[in-house]
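WARN retry 2 of 3 for item q-0093 after timeout on previous attempt; input resubmitted unchanged.
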Amino acid sequence: MVRKVPLLLTMVCLVRAVIGAAQPCENWSLSITTDANPGQTSWQIRDVSNSQVIASGGGYTNHGTITLSICLPTNGYYSLVMNDSGGNGITGGGWVLRDPLGRRVLDNTGNGGNFSSTCAPPEPFCTVVGNTKLLDTHCDVETWLPTSVVVCNEDPLVSAQWQVGDQTNDGYQFWFFDPIGAYTRKVFRSHAASGGLGPPDATRACRLDLGTIITDPLPTGTLLNVRIRSRVNGLNSAWGGACRFRLDPVAAQCPPARLVDYAGPLLSCGTIGRHVNGTDRLYARPVTRLVNGNTQVADQYQFEFSLPSENYSHVAANTSAWVTLAPWTVGPLLCGPVTYNVRVRASFNGGNSWCPWGAPCPVLIINNSPPLCGPSEGNRHADATDPEYVHALLIWPNPSNGDQLFITIADLGEEVPTASIEVIDVFGKRVMNELVSVDGSALNTVLDLKNGLSEGLYVVNITASGSTFTERLVIAK
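OK item q-0093 returned
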């Protein structure tokens, strides 16, 4: 008989060794998007071990997104409590809580109107965040069917226990919960149970058939978060980062499409320096649906490139979930480096009807392709290796209508975890301040203004690792 060897894992939050001693803390970020009555919104983060309020805020005056930096003592359990003195939640708004590495722990974006006076997640969160989560292709999907199968990434420590000793205490626990606390459900998938899925192998436990959740089933139409943790020899790792999740059978019959927005060779959303050369491509997530038990694949895709500030729009079609950036003769892309708003939609009947457009993404595309573009284009003609380009702050659209602002810096000069974004009005008053995550040395983010800025001239400052990038912004509604 093969005996298992106990494993030493970095686990859950630890009991603090010295009561009352000063604890090291790490900077977490809380982004709150307010509604038409931001002064009614307040929040608290409480230490559940002693009910102490660690951080709090409220009484906001700017109608938009506020991102706050919160230093939380390490190895602790905390609860985020949101309040609305008006008794109707944060209509159209919401919040996101991220750890120091930018991983989401709670994501209630756009769902803030679904509570009345106060709400909190069903369980406290731990400041130790694990690495197990839904696959990138399954994360943030909101068109699941009750019979769908969701899959998490593999933990090699779990796979190493396949067919070794007791198979009932190795696997993955899936936690579905409403971020405002109305629902919670945990499901454990072990090596020992098939769950109706096959073949039996070291990664079968990564897959969860939603149709097997009979007791306290997942609600339809409700935004949930999904967090996952691995279990080895009965010992749980820390919960991984959160993904958005929603069962929506109606939307699943014609799902919206979007550019690939997860790490990998097909990453397209928010990328910089794609060229119009007949080779570079943008990729969308392939769109499928289930019809009479059979998977049907979309047979047409449309990619829309738009730049409202220059009254430019072009739609390119393809039978596959990608588009080649070619020197189109009709509606060619503009010359030089330009950040476009790109969105995608799919069709299942050869383009006779179309599913809804998906969420837009900023993509910076360089067009130096003759004969329409060339050196005669002057300063707008640039290359991705041009120092003036790679270190430039690009914001779009500018002028803006006060809704969303796409922000791109191709090279911050060094790899940094976060960057600070501040918006300053003509009187020198800081009207917005956000801390955003950075992917390596490139910054690609969307600032949600929510029409919170009045018409006029502003300055946008991006600060990262001691360097500051500045650009003017015009709000014209």
